Every structure is written in C-alpha cells, then in structure tokens.
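Repro case for the chain-ordering regression, as requested:
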Amino acid sequence: MNAEIKFDFAECFEKLSGVAHAVPSEKAAVDEIISIITSKEAKCVALANLPKKLVTAIEKRCDGIKVLKEPYAAETLPAAIDEADVGITGIAFAIAQSGTLVETTTNDAVRLVSALTPTYIGVLRKADIVNRFEDGSARIREIVKEHDENLVISFISGPSRTGDIELKLTLGVHGPGEAHAVIIGK
Amino acid sequence: MTTQRYERLYEKIDASLKDRSASDALLRCMKRGRDTRAAALETLPGGTAFRNDVRKAKERCIEDLPRLKKQFIENVEKRGAKVFEAKTPADVIKYCIDLAKERGATHLAKSKSLTTEEIELNRPLMDAGIDVVETDLGELIIQLVNEKPFHLVFPSVHKMAPEVAKIFEKATGKPVEGNIPSIMKVVRKYLRPIFLNAEIGMTGANIGIAETGAICIETNEGNARNVSSIGKCHICVMGMEKIVETIEDAMLMILAHPVSASGQLPTTYVTWMHGRNPLGEGDGKNARESHIIILDNGRTEMRDDPDYRESLYCIRCGACMNVCPTSGIVGGHTFGHIYPGPMGICWTAAVHGLETAGNFAPLCISCGLCKEICPAIIDMPHMIAEIKHRDAKKHGYPLPNKVMMGADKAARLGSVTAAVANFSLNTRAIRKLMDKTIGLSADRNVPPFTYPTFMQRFKDHRLKVVAPQRKVAFFVDVYANYNDPDLGMAAVRQLEALDCEVVLPPQDASGYPFIAYGDLDRARKTAAGNVAKLFPYANQGYDIVSIEPTATYSLAESYPHLLKNNNASRRVADHTHELFEYLNKLEEDTGNAPMSRSLKGRKFGFHIPCHQRALGSGHGAIEWLRRRGAEVEVIETGTCCGMGGTFGLKAGLLGHKLSMAVGDALFDLFKAAEIDAIVTESSVCKIQLAEGTGLEVFHPLQLL
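-- result from build under test --
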C-alpha cells in the first residue's frame, strides 16, 4: 500500500452523491445547517449526538420549525423521528479514502435520526478525518474499548442508494435521499 | 439415464436462448459489475493486492474457527445479546417461531440475508402466522412474485421497470407509473409502516468479529439500519464462516466485498452492532433484545473436507457470477438452486446436496475465470471438478463428455487414419450421425488431422544449434501434434533461432478435459504421469515451454493442485513458460531483436483465452507481435468466447448452442473492430472465433 496518497474527504464523499460543506467555525456550521434546512422547507428537524452548544444554536435559529432533540422519550419512538424532514447527527470520525462518516452511539434514537429522515446532515471536525480506510481500525478499537456493553457504529458513505431496478442508480429508497457532511475546522 | 436427468436443464437453457431479454439485462449487470470493479481497483492503492490479504485472513480464520467462534460467543454475550448455535435449518426455524410466539410478535421486517434464503426461512415463519416482509428492494420484488434471486447482488435484475410497477400495483392496490422515480416513491411509502411497526427485525451478518463480539451488516439502501434499530427484538442469522478474528480483518472484508461486487468501497451503510442499544429514554427503554443465531448446516463438514473447505472463504460478493460465461446467458434460476453461479455449485453441493448441485454443475465449462476474479482466490474450477467427479461416481459421465475426454485418443486415431477421418469429418451425413450418436456437433468446423504428427516429425528433426545457451523441453499438447505439426515445428525453429537446444520429452496430452468434465482419477493420473516425465528435465535445468494456453495452465496451475502441491509438481510448474513470454525474454537476453518489422502496417484483434488470464494474459504474444511492427488491440468482453475448451464442440444446448450464445457479445466486438484478422494462441478459441465472426483467425506464429 502506498502510504503517500492523501485522500480528500470532501471529494470522495461527493463522488458518492453526498454534499460536503467545509466551514471554518461552529458558527459558520450553524449557518450552513440552517441554510440546508431552509432550502428543504423543513417543518420538523431531528437532532442527536451533537454538542449542547450546537443544539442550542440550531434551535435558536429554527423559527417556526419543530425541533426534536435528546432525550427522546422511548414511547414516542420510532414515530416521532419519522416525522422529521431533516436529521442531524454528530460524527465521531470520518474516513477520507472512502468518503465515510462514522457515527457511534449507545442509543438507537441517534440511528433513527440519520436513517429515517429524507435529508441527513452529519457534523464533524476536520481534525477527525483519517486518511486511509484501514486507518479506521485503530479509531474503532479505541471507541469499542470505551464501551463494554452495547454500542453501534454506523458507516455512512453518502445517501441511501439502490440499483435494484434496471441497475439504475436511485437515491433515497429507504434512508435519506440527500446526505450532507458539514466539516468544521480550518 | 443421464440425458433424462438433464431434460429439465435443457428445457431451461432452451428457454433462455429463445428469450434473451432476461439474459440481456443480466449481461449488462455483469458487465457493469466487472467495469465498476476494474475502475475501483484503479483507484485502490495496491490494486488487486487485497485479494492475497483476504485469502490469508480467511485461511487463518477458518483454520482457527472453533476458537474464534467461542471467543465471538463470549463477547456477544458479554454485551448482552443472546447466542443460539443452530445445527440445522429446522433449529433456526423453531427458535424463531418460538421466540415470536413468546413475544406475541406477528410482524417481522427483514433485510437481505442469503443465509436465511439458504434455509428457506420465510415460508415456515409465514405458515406460523408471522408476516415476513423483505425490505431490500430487489428481495422484496422477488418475494412479491415468489421467485428466487436471479443474481446474488441484484436479485431482480431480470425485471424491468414496467413489470416492477405492475408488481407494486398488485401489492398496494393502487396504480403505479412504470418509471423508476415513481416506483421508488411507492416503495418508500409502502415499506415505511412495515419498518415502523415490525416487532421483530431480522438481518443477516456479513461479518462477526471474535475480538469484540460485533456483527457487521452492509447495505446500500439503509434498510438494515431500520430493521436493526426499530423492532424490539432483533434476530441475526449468520453462517459460522462469517466470523473473523479482528477489527482489521473486518475492515478488510468491508472493503473487499463491495469492491468485488459493485466497485464500491465500502457499501453506503455498514452497521457494527455490539449488543443491542436501547431506543430513546424512559419507560420501555430496556425492553430490547438481540439474538444472534450462528448456523452450521453442513459448514463443519465443509471445513473438515479439504475439497470443500475453500467454500467457507466465500464473502458472497457475487463477482464470480459477474464473470461466469454460461451463468450470464441462463441466469441464476437455471445456474443455481438457491445459491446461484459458480460458487453456487460449491455451496449447493455442501448444503443442499450433491445431487442438486449435480443437476446444474454441467453448466460450468471450467474456464477458470471465477477464480481469477474471486477476492479470496477460491479455487472454484477445481472444487467444481471435484463435485462433478463425486456426482459421476453415482451417475456416470454423459456420452458426449466421455467422447471429449477421449479426444486425445480419437486424435491419435484420426491422425493415423487421416484420409478416412478427414473424409468423415467433411461428410455432412456422417457428421450428422456423429452429432446424434456421440454428441460431436455437426455444425463445427473441426480442423483436419495430419500425418505424420508433430512428434513423428520431430524425431527426424536434427538439431541445428551449435552452441546452445538454454535447454528447452517442449510441450506440444493435442492440436499442434495431431492437427497442425507445422505450428509446432515453427515454434521449435523460433526457439532454436534464439540458441535453444530443444528436446521433446515423453509426454501425454495435458488432459484438461478430465478436469473440465470431472474425471479426477484420470486427471490425477495424467498429471502424475506428465509430472514424472517432465520432472527430470526440470531438474536438469530445462525450461518447459508450452504452446497451448490450456496445456500451460494445466502444467502451471492444475497439476500442482491435483498433486497436492508435491515437490515434483511445484518444480515442473515453476519451470513452465508460455512460448511467447519465453521468446521475448530470450530476445532480450541474447540481444537478438527481430530481424524485420515484417508485420508493419497490419492490425490485429487479440483474443485472450480464459486459461491465459491466470498466466500472462497474452502479454507475451502481444509484445512479440508488436516487436515485429504489428498493431495489436486486445478485444474482450471480460469473459469467455464461449468455447470453454471442448465444451463448444459438443452438440446441442449443453454445447454448441450455448457456446455460441456466450460468444455473441465478443463476436460483435470483433466484427465492429477495424482489424485485418484475429490472433489467438488457443486452438479451440480459434475455431469458435472463426465461426462466430467469419473473420480469419491466426496463431501468432502463422503470421510470419
């Protein structure tokens, strides 16, 4: 393997029909997220796995838009999240070579936010992008070590896709038809 | 008796050849699979090197499976999930039905799982009152019409959009427009309540990790994410061979699987489940469970059987289906039972019985391409030969196969009686009779026999090399010996012109048809015989140079396998060379460049015989022609020309007809190319291409 190749996450994510947004700060990330929410004319937004500060900032800007956030009451699920037009989750790390967002969680509500909504936004820090696919192994081992019991790690490489009819690539059959990555960091 | 046995197979092949719409769709699918794989490998650092890594990892993990399974189970249980080790399909069925009853569950949403298809789990669950819905789109389509997968990765590839729309009209009771975007909207709406209301979510697992107790589930649509997160109860049914040792092993498989299947790295979604997460907070948070059913169903026996063990290395990518020539024409419903394609023969034999595998194993023409594309380098050609062999012990060999396995002896007789034999081969009435009686296709232009043979002529050939630099033991095989001794002599002269002392060791024909039709007793005998005859030469510093690609493949690849990699077979293999690769090397070493660019201004389309793909993919001959000024373009579909050695010489559906159907796409490419002629080193591909294209076909040596 040639260790010298430097992969570009945004480029690889966009090859998979994802949309990458590189932003310099959390504030700029909120702007970008709001702009996506607005462009989708979303009436309901679901948030999970995000730092409190970011949740508050997004909520503040969602005027007239219903915002769902943690904690999600078990008895309202999965129906509550199914209502959301946009789902936003925090991402543990990403893999540049394959354009993969890696979401980790100990609560499946987080998974529903990134799986059920028509539009999905993953938020990550630029420093959390590893270069090669196999570089992911060490990160996964660290994460797994921190959890003795339940844990789900999800690789998300672009929007939900199928080629099952006539091999024609179609997006969003079950999961999000749009996948955005908002990458914070200079 | 054997003919009767294959009647159903003949009917199915006939139907595929008459209505090509399904196979046209399948061929597009396969081609796209190959093209996207090739494109992905261009960007993957190391290219195909990952295949060796996968192979090593699978060898290690299957060898250590009992320990890894124990470790996996301990770790799964530590994380709060339950494990059930199922010996048989009935065990799985009972466990699932009992569990559903205990939980009062009647709705089960499923994501794609070949293992549950292997044990035909859906029907008994539905009979027990559980509503089972497949949520992978392709699987759902075939579930709604009660079919089996047509292709491993694209199970419904034979259904066009208007037909799919009709299927969903029936399912939803509402009109559905026959275009894909409209169908997708309907599917999303149709499946959403099924996801949301399922009490049980059932998945397979692509990987189980012993180190962490995780299962990994790969999907592109994301249905496995919904299925594994929503229902209170999650059931995973996995084959025990899916267990790997480490996270690194898992990452390797997560890459190798989609790269090989569809040129992706990795699939859109990969879910690593460690135990079961709660869903939300508050009441009901903890009422969630995960059951991991580890299925044996013959896998332990497969592991213990050296001829079947490699099947357990299969990662279910379907790449072998994307390259298998006959599978591409007849599809997975004919070339398969539940598991389709080349690997399907091996898995069917192991889990659904030898008899069932034997019913469609004759569709394998032993081209060997499946091994060349397999991410775990599984030796499917030899495994399938073993299955044919075991099957024949019970059923015997069909007469046409016996005839083809005796082609060497027939050629010997044909040569001695050349005048009579050639008259017979050129007489329509006699050929028709042979077609009906022994199964040699009357429609094939079989090359005439010649007397004396190459071997006889070589005896009179006097060495002209004064100070030989190298010693060559020449391997001639059937065609150049009995049909075209001039070709053999031309090869000898080329070698001698480059200061080689050429000898002709005692030898038999390569015997590849014994492998192709599964007479492994005679294949081994031939291999042992030839190795014993060639080994002393290899030991005395002779290079073995072979003129026929399949013979070279036999010496270099098949014999070591048949002889369990014994020292002599390895030594012979290591000393074996393709003629042109060897000539080029000699030209370089001796500084003896070709005297003239006699082929300047001529353009040839080059055909790579399948067995040559395991060797140098024809690079030797191409380079040799280019050095002589020729313009050479490789023309290929990526699969076989259809001849499959002697397969295409046989009459009828399981021979000439299917063979020509396989070749069609390649014939079209050659016909459309602006070339003077076709060049190939294979004597049998030559017959096929001449018939299929109407163009002239030459061996490179014939061009001088």
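Ordering looks correct now. The longest helix of chain A spans residues 26-39.
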